[in-house]
Amino acid sequence: MWFVELLIPSSCVSCGGPANRLCGACRSSFRPIVRPHCARCGAPTAWPVERCRECAGRRLAFARAVAAFAYAGPVRPFVRAWKERGLRRLAPLAAELVVGQLAAPAADAITYVPPDPVRQLHRSRHPAESLADELGRRWQLELTGLLARTGGAERQATLPRARRRANVQGSFRALAAAPPRVLLIDDIYTTGATASAAASALRSAGARRVDVITFARAVR
């Protein structure tokens, strides 16, 4: 039945082969983001740097962003199944994979980049929220919904890189006062524009430091 498939996928969501959620071959093909990488945005680099070509000269509201895996290969269909098909049981697995790659930064609370409310009508629970919930359980951090969308922004995936920062500027507002150290979770880091806009709203609400963790990031 379709509702059983939502809870327990009977095949690998990346390749379609027989497996419970994710087969061993696809799991071993996930490419982790390892050092050296940029200390600010987490982009892979040839040697350790404080700022890389991707983020040098940009005003980023977050202190540091890191991702567990490169958004490539079997990671792509895994994320699509999680986001577009609403396979709920992928969130615990995604959190397990993240915890296996990344250490929890010091934080007072964990929150997430909120979804566009119109697009979310066609999905189950938002991937960033479910990932933040699962990571909070594992890292003993209280999950708090600190942000909301202000509306009006175009979909980031449809825009060229040059327009993404302007598109999301002012797209988030804080729902409550933010604690001093906030861990912000999203599913994918592409240009950092969304993460920076969300972090800016958190800092305006009182956060002194915002760290970003994503399941995957685009690698160029």
Major β-sheet profile? 4 strands, parallel
Shape: globular
Number of DSSP strand runs: 6
The secondary structure category is alpha/beta
Number of helices: 8
* Percentage of residues assigned to helices: 25-40%
Mean pLDDT across all amino acids: 87
The spatial strand order of the largest sheet comes to 1-6-5-2
Q: Could you give the distance between the termini?
A: 40 Å
Question: What integer value in Å does the Rg equal?
Answer: 17 Å
**Oligomerization status of the protein chains:** single chain
Residue runs with pLDDT of under 50 for 5 or more positions: 1-6
Order of helices and strands: HHEHHEHHEHEEHE
Proportion of beta-strand residues: 15-25%
